[in-house]
Design goal:
194 residues, Rossmann fold, alpha/beta, globular, 7 helices, NAD(P)-binding protein, oxidoreductase, three-stranded mixed beta sheet
Amino acid sequence: MRQQWPSSPSYFRDKVVTRDHLRARAKDTLGFRYTLILSGAVTEYTVSEFNGVDLEKHVARTYGYPEARLHVTALQDVAKFIVGSVLLPFDNPTQPMRELRVSGDCLTWKALMQLLEEMQGVKYDIKYLDPALAAEKQEAARAAGDSEGELQWSACATMANGYALLPEPSDNHRFKFRAETAKDTLTRMFGVKK
């Protein structure tokens, strides 16, 4: 049975379609195996214009809630996890699919914004907006045939809403590197302001 998502259906719909396709290929292709990597939100995108964060004007308009938790992973670490997964043996070679859950950090949206303020040495003007507004903008983009806009608004309704959490347990321990925390990534991006 397909999982129904309470928000951001477009964002998750494409992932479900991909999973369904891989599952079907595994049924009709002898020896076909695949790995699904769940990595949470990309840290660099969470604090970007894509997600309502203006790094120059120090303003954030976030669709969601300050205490919403999310998993984040630096983009470079997502690539490391994908490449590293190729070298990991399947625990059960008779199963065509495995799922690896990896991330760099788990924190609240409020804590992420506090880290951003610390790294940039400024105070942000942060307003939390009703996620239903992003859903309305997503639907308007879909109706207009704007698939890029539909995807963006779909993702915006996910980040600070509590839907960017990975199921436990984590598979980080299976890899030979330590993923960056949110603080590591923001330090790399901005340095520490005094």
